[in-house]
C-alpha cells in the first residue's frame, strides 16, 4: 500500500480514521476553476495597467511571452507549496475530528490567503539576497531567465517527488538548495570556484534557521505537552478521538485556533518566497514599471539627498559633496570604477581600503541621479535599470559593511549607513498589491488539492498511537509560534519540519513511540533535499543557459 492509501493499525480500537475522500463537490470545483481563471486575468490586467502607467510601449512581444511563462512557473511553485506544506497544518484538526477534511482544507486555504496578503515582505528579499549579484544585476538577460526557470522548476520537481511518496519535506529547504545550485553552476561556468557563487553568510544564517527550527518544534512541543499534563488535568484532552466524534467544544476551539494560526503563519512566511522571485521576473522584463518604486512619498527625494550627504561624511569624505549636477566624463568614469569595486566587494566578500571610498562615490552618483530627475517616478525608462542596480549595490554593500570589522566603522557611522539603506530599500524593495494577491491565490488554492498524502503521513505514520487532542494542539501551537518568530526576523523556516517534528516530540513525551520507518524517511528527505535540489537546479541552469 502506498503512502496515500496506507491503512492504520486496525488492532488499535481507539483509532477512528477520518473520512479523507469527501471532495469539494461540483459547485466547489466550478468555483475553484473560476477562481484560477479570475486570478490569471487579474494578473494580466495588473501588468498591463502598470506598464501603461509607466509609459511602456512594447516593441516585441517575446519579453512578455517569457514574462507570462516565468510567472506561471513561479505561481505554480506556490501552488505546489500550498498542497505540499499546508497539509501539515490541517492534519491535526482532521485526525482529532475537530473539522471534516474537506472543510479543513478550505479553511486553511483561506487563512493562507490572508497570511500572504498581510505579510511584511522581509522574507521575500532575504531569499533574493542569496542569488549571485551578477545575475541579479542582469536579471532581464538570458542568464537571468535561465536562473529563474532553473531554480523554480527544480524546486517544483523535488516537491512533487516527495509529495508523491507521501514524505513531508521542506519547500523552503528545496528552494534554498535550488538557489545555491544556480549560484554554484553560474560560478563554475565563468571559471570561478563553486563557492564564489553564493552569499554563504546569508546561506549559513538561513541554514541555522532551517536546522534549529525542527529541534525547537520537537523539544518545545514535548515540553508543552508535559506542562499541559501537569497543569490541565482533564482526561478527555489526552484521549484519542473515537468513532468520528468531535472533541469537546473548548478543545475543538483550541485545535481550530492553532490550525488557523499555522495556516496564517505559513502564508505569511512561505508566500513571500514566491513574491521575491516574481519581483525579480518583473524587474527583468518590465523594468520601467517595476525596477523602482514610483509610489514613494513626496518628501522621499529631499530625505534621500540629506541621508546621502550624511553617508558620504560617515564613509570618510572630508566634506559633504556639493549639490548634484549633471555628470561629466570624469564623473562617469569615477562612478564606473566605483561600481566595479563595490560589485567585486559584494561578490568576493573581500574588503580593501578602496571599498569605502568607492561606496562613497557610488552613493554620490546615485544621489546625483535622484536629485537630477526630481523623483523616482520621473526617472526615464533608459536610466531605470542602471539606477536600480546602483541602489541595489549600495544597499548590499552597506549590509555587508555592518559586520565588516576591517572597515572600522563606529556605532554612529553604522547607524547613519543603516538609515540610508532604509531609503535605498524603500526605492527598490517593494511588492505591488497584485503580486501579493496572485501569490495568495496560488498558495490558498494549492492548499485545497493534493493534501491527502502528506496528511496521512503526519496523522498516522509518525507515532505508534493515534494523535490525541493535546498532542495536536501542542504541535500546532509551537509551529505557529516558531513560524511567526521567524517571519518577524525575516528568516524562512519550514512549516513541514517544525510541525512534523512537533508531532514527533509529543509522541516521545507521551511515550507513545515513533514509527521508525517514517522517522527514517523524514530524516532521509531532510538530508537529501539540499544536495538533490542543488544538483538538479545546477544542471537545469547549465541547460537553460545554452537554450535561452
Primary descriptors:
548 residues, mainly alpha, 72% helix, 0% strand
Instruction: Look at the helices and sheets and give the structural class.
Output: mainly alpha
What is the oligomeric state here?
A: single chain
Write down the Rg.
Answer: 25 Å
Binned, the helix content reads over 70%
Unreliable stretches (pLDDT < 50, length at least 5) are 1-15
Discrete helix count: 21
Order of helices and strands: HHHHHHHHHHHHHHHHHHHHH
Shape descriptor: globular
How many DSSP E strands? 0
Largest sheet: none
**Arithmetic mean pLDDT:** 81
Beta-strand percent range: under 5%
Distance separating the two termini: 43 Å
In short:
This protein is an all-alpha fold.
Write a structural description.
This protein has 548 residues and is mainly α. Helix 3 runs antiparallel to helix 4, helix 5 crosses helix 10 and helix 13 crosses helix 14. The longest helix has 37 residues.
Task: Give the topology, please.
Blueprint: H1 25-53, H2 62-85, H3 87-95, H4 101-117, H5 122-128, H6 133-137, H7 142-164, H8 171-189, H9 200-231, H10 249-285, H11 287-290, H12 300-314, H13 329-348, H14 353-373, H15 381-401, H16 411-428, H17 433-447, H18 452-460, H19 469-489, H20 495-509, H21 516-547
Amino acid at each position: 500500500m502506498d503512502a496515500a492509501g496506507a491503512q492504520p493499525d486496525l488492532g488499535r480500537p481507539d483509532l477512528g480514521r477520518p473520512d479523507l475522500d469527501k471532495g469539494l463537490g461540483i459547485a466547489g470545483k466550478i468555483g475553484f476553476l473560476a477562481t484560477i481563471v479570475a486570478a490569471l486575468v487579474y494578473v494580466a490586467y495588473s501588468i498591463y495597467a502598470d506598464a501603461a502607467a509607466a509609459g511602456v510601449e512594447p516593441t516585441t512581444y517575446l519579453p512578455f511571452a517569457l514574462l507570462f511563462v516565468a510567472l506561471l512557473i513561479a505561481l505554480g511553485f506556490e501552488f505546489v507549496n500550498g498542497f505540499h506544506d499546508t497539509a501539515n497544518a490541517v492534519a491535526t484538526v482532521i485526525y482529532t475530528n475537530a473539522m471534516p477534511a474537506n472543510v479543513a482544507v478550505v479553511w486553511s486555504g483561506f487563512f493562507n490567503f490572508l497570511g500572504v496578503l498581510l505579510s511584511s515582505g522581509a522574507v521575500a528579499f532575504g531569499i533574493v539576497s542569496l542569488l549571485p549579484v551578477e545575475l541579479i544585476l542582469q536579471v532581464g538577460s538570458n542568464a537571468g531567465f535561465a536562473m529563474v526557470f532553473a531554480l523554480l522548476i527544480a524546486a517544483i520537481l523535488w516537491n512533487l517527488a516527495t509529495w508523491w511518496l507521501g514524505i513531508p519535506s521542506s519547500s523552503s529547504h528545496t528552494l534554498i538548495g535550488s538557489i545555491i545550485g544556480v549560484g554554484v553552476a553560474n560560478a563554475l561556468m565563468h571559471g570561478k570556484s563553486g563557492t564564489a557563487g553564493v552569499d554563504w553568510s546569508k546561506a549559513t544564517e538561513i541554514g541555522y534557521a532551517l536546522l534549529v527550527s525542527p529541534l525547537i518544534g520537537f523539544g518545545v512541543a514535548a515540553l508543552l505537552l508535559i506542562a499541559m499534563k501537569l497543569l490541565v488535568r482533564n482526561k478527555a484532552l489526552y484521549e484519542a478521538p473515537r468513532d468520528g466524534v468531535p472533541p469537546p467544544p473548548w478543545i475543538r476551539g483550541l485545535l481550530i485556533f492553532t490550525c488557523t494560526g499555522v495556516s496564517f503563519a505559513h502564508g505569511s512566511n512561505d508566500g513571500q518566497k514566491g513574491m521575491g522571485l516574481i519581483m525579480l521576473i518583473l524587474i527583468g522584463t518590465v523594468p520601467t514599471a517595476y525596477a523602482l518604486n514610483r509610489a514613494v512619498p513626496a518628501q522621499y527625494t529631499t530625505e534621500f539627498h540629506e541621508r546621502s550627504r550624511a553617508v558620504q561624511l560617515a564613509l570618510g569624505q572630508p566634506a559633504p559633496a556639493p549639490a548634484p549636477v549633471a555628470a561629466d566624463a570624469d564623473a562617469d568614469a569615477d562612478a564606473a570604477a566605483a561600481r566595479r569595486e563595490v560589485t567585486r566587494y559584494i561578490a568576493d566578500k573581500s574588503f580593501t581600503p578602496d571599498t569605502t571610498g568607492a561606496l562613497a562615490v557610488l552613493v554620490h552618483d546615485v544621489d546625483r541621479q535622484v536629485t537630477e530627475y526630481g523623483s523616482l517616478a520621473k526617472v526615464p525608462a533608459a536610466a531605470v535599470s542602471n539606477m536600480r542596480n546602483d541602489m541595489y549595490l549600495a544597499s548590499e554593500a552597506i549590509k555587508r559593511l555592518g559586520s565588516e570589522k576591517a572597515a572600522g566603522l563606529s556605532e554612529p557611522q553604522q547607524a547613519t549607513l543603516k538609515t540610508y539603506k532604509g531609503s535605498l530599500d524603500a526605492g527598490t524593495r517593494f511588492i505591488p498589491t497584485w503580486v501579493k494577491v496572485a501569490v495568495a491565490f496560488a498558495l490558498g488554492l494549492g492548499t485545497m488539492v493534493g493534501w491527502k498524502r502528506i496528511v496521512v503521513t503526519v496523522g498516522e505514520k509518525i507515532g505508534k498511537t493515534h494523535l490525541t487532542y493535546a498532542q495536536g494542539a501542542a504541535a500546532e501551537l509551537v509551529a505557529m509560534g516558531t513560524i511567526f518568530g521567524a517571519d518577524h526576523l525575516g528568516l524562512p523556516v519550514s512549516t513541514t519540519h517544525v510541525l512534523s517534528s512537533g508531532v514527533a516530540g509529543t509522541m516521545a513525551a507521551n511515550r507513545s513511540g515513533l514509527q521508525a520507518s517514517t522517522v527514517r524517511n523524514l530524516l532521509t528527505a531532510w538530508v537529501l533535499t539540499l544536495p538533490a535540489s542543488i544538483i538538479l537546479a545546477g544542471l537545469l541552469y547549465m541547460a537553460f543557459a545554452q537554450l535561452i
